[in-house]
Amino acid sequence: MIRKATLNDLSSILVIINACTNHMIKNKIFQWNKKYPSKEVFYNDIKNKSLYVFENNKIIIGCIMITESESIVYKKVKWKTINKKNLYVHRLAVNPKNQGKGFGMKLMTFAEQYALKRNFLSIRLDTFSKNKRNIKFYKSRGYIKTEDVYFPNQSIYPFHCYEKILNK
Question: Is 41 helix (H, G, I), strand (E, B) or coil?
């Protein structure tokens, strides 16, 4: 079941994020670190009602943040659609012990259905250029690579921006 996150979920979410961060670092994917994403980031996501959690047997195993707000780092990106009604996805995470079971797919399907129901033109996101698994995942779902952005506090390597056009 996917539902809006509450402040009561924050500690469970942070356990998942720490597990994901450690799992990526162990696999030499330096996408997240001890500074990002932080407790404050998720607290704000919940307060802004933009964070959703995936519960399986009453246990939170993943999350996704969806928002209409364009991040400042995206302002110079040449997207495939006009900047009018676009949905942005951030912080998709599934506990490593639950990965490979389709939960990430279900979270992305949720975001895509959310966007379609509300007549968004597209979904936009970024993923770390060294995270080959994520790149393959988004491409398989019909996301098109646009440009690169940089998050110097996370990595010297770029993050690829992707967009999926929903309504023309």
Answer: helix
